[in-house]
């Protein structure tokens, strides 16, 4: 099947004087990524499977309006200023306490009420395979200090990777943790659940969480736990195990501490047998959140008209650890003036015949 592209007209709008559009990137392998500058959202990603049929491997909606009105899943968006949770929406930096929106139980999640997923980025498409997005988050926006100038570059490479580079600078000391929140289903979006996908994660430990999904501060070894993905296994194999951490998350919703041996590490590999599509995730970040779509609402209808439901996709969100601003023992997320935040993540696709 040929790619069924989203219609750019369904993404055109003017929001607070800024133009929203849908950009289309193509590579030499015929893969196609469609990205809107609303939230920097990867809205579709067409990859050829072993039978030369294109599959759209990410969940999403068919129009801007649906992204605006159903934001809770963060399908494909850039998440910031702080991906994942900050306990009770509070942190202290240089002796000053900052208060953020509490938008997830008693905690702050994914940058707050209007995070980077729900703002209009400035966009430039220098070449047919690259999109550059910039956004300046004002001092105290969502409670975070400092004017933060952020740049994100999406590049659909000829080696069949969607390569995402992030940069940020600030004029006051602040915290930053950026990710992309794509939901993958390597059978194609809307084609059932991901429980039979095989997954391998290069992580010997994870940040265990309390009942509100905030890290306790401990790194727990994966040995003899259902969270051990060092050897490939299906996502479904242990997902319903009677294990406290899985019960808290209603499935996998955990930050893995990547075993790092270089700057750009292979964090995880996911494979799906019927399409033969394999996805390798490489990142410079120290952590990756495995989220198995435990809370995807079954009221959502995806872009091709198929119903979504819990476990219809999985996320591998590369990141610094959740709640790092309150956990001095975790790798730092503090960014000071004159420093530059930079990270790189690749989702690289290949096909096993
Ligand atoms: C979080 C989940 C949350 C999901 C959607 C993930 O990054 O870890 O707890 O439900 O995003 O917001």
Automatic annotation (TrEMBL):
It comes from the Bacteria. Its main location: cytoplasm. It catalyses: alpha-D-glucose = beta-D-glucose. The keyword Calcium applies. Keywords: Calcium, Carbohydrate metabolism, Cytoplasm, Isomerase, Phosphoprotein. InterPro entries: Ald1_epimerase_CS, Aldose_1-epimerase, Aldose_1/G6P_1-epimerase, Gal_mutarotase_sf_dom, Galactose_mutarotase-like, GH-type_carb-bd. Its cofactor is Ca(2+). The active site is at residues 181, 317. Pathway: Carbohydrate metabolism; hexose metabolism. It holds the Pfam family Aldose_epim. It is an enzyme of class 5 (isomerase). GO terms for cellular component: cytoplasm. Belongs to the aldose epimerase family. PANTHER family: ALDOSE-1-EPIMERASE, GALACTOSE MUTAROTASE. Monomer. This is Aldose 1-epimerase.
């Amino acid at each position: 099947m040929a790619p069924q592209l989203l219609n750019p007209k369904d993404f055109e709008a003017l929001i607070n004087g800024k133009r929203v559009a849908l950009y289309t990137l193509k590579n030499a392998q015929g893969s196609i990524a469609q990205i809107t500058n609303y939230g920097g959202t990867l809205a579709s990603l067409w990859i050829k499977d072993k039978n030369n049929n294109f599959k759209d491997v990410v969940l999403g909606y068919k129009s801007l309006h649906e992204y605006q009105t159903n934001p809770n899943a963060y399908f494909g968006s850039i998440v910031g200023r702080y991906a994942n949770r900050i306990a009770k929406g509070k942190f202290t930096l240089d002796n000053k306490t900052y208060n953020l929106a509490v938008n997830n139980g008693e905690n702050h999640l994914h940058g707050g009420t209007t995070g980077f997923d729900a703002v209009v980025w400035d966009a430039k498409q220098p070449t047919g395979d690259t999109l550059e997005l910039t956004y300046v988050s004002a001092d105290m926006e969502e409670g975070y200090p400092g004017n933060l100038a952020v740049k994100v570059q999406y590049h659909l490479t000829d080696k069949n990777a969607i390569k995402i580079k992030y940069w940020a600078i600030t004029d006051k000391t602040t915290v930053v943790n950026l990710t992309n929140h794509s939901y993958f289903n390597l059978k194609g979006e809307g084609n059932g659940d991901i429980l039979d996908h095989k997954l391998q994660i290069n992580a010997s430990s994870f940040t265990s969480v309390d009942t509100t999904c905030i890290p306790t501060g401990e790194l727990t070894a994966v040995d003899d736990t259902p969270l051990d993905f060092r050897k490939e296994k299906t996502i479904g194999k242990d997902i319903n195990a009677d294990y406290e951490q899985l019960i808290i998350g209603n499935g996998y919703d955990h930050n893995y501490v990547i075993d790092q041996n270089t700057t750009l590490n292979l964090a995880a590999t996911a494979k799906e047998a019927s399409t033969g599509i394999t996805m390798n995730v490489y990142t410079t970040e120290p952590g990756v959140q495995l989220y198995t779509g435990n809370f995807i609402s079954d009221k959502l209808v995806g872009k091709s008209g198929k119903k979504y439901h819990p476990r219809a996709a999985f996320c591998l969100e590369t990141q610094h650890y959740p709640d790092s601003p309150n956990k001095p023992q975790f790798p730092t997320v503090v960014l000071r003036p004159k420093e530059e935040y930079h990270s790189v993540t690749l989702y690289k696709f290949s096909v096993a015949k």
